[in-house]
Amino acid sequence: MARPQAPDYADRRQAMLDSAAALYARHGYLGASISDLAAASGVSKSLLYHYFGSKEDILFELMIDHVEALQRMTNEVLAAPSDNPADRLAQLTRGFLRAYVGASDRHKVLVNDLDYLPAERRRQVVRVERELMDIVGDVLAAIGPHYGETRAERRASTMLYFGMINWTHTWYDVEGPLSVEALADRAIAIFLGRPAPTNAGQVSTKF
């Protein structure tokens, strides 16, 4: 007989995902067992299995939730009225970096452990990632032809852009002297070829 859902089912499930994200980020997917995941969440293995079918299910949910949150952010940026593609790139950059900092464990898991998903689930995650890259590529194309006159050139520029911001989790200290907004301003200035902000503690909105 199936176990009935508790009133706080969704909250407990999210808390388990948060604990799993921290564990996978610290030890890697292969370095964390179901027993480890249950212990990190403060529950029994049988209760963990009530919420998730397997380690793989947890890994997939962490990744698809993360990229879909990024997708929602980009859609919100694109839906906002703007006739300046450079401003759109700035808003996207701030959105990406805020998301990376706010969900740093999930982002680490996405970057480091994607290959551990089976092919079909990996394709679902990669499909969303490619949509994000296409959005940024279209914005770059709207800024100017110097980001690439061919699809291959624009894709190269897009990959360079994501290469610049996707690995900030390996070195950026959220408690350090540089705020995430100031970090985003610096990344925007570098990629757009504009002077970098002179005051790291201030958020610049003029480029």
Sequence-ordered SSE layout with sheet pairings:
Layout: H1 9-27, H2 34-41, H3 45-51, H4 55-79, H5 85-102, H6 104-113, H7 119-143, H8 151-165, H9 180-192
Highest-level CATH class of the largest domain: Mainly Alpha
| Element string (H = helix, E = strand) | HHHHHHHHH
What is the quaternary state of this protein?
single chain
Shape: elongated
| Fold-level CATH name of the largest domain | Tetracycline Repressor, domain 2
Low-confidence stretches: 200-207
Give average pLDDT, whole number.
91
Proportion of β residues?
Answer: under 5%
Radius of gyration, in Å, reads 19 Å
The total number of structural domains is 2
Major beta sheet, specifics? none
- Separation of the first and last Cα atoms: 62 Å
- Within CATH, the superfamily of the largest domain carries the name Tetracycline Repressor, domain 2
Secondary structure: helix percent: 55-70%
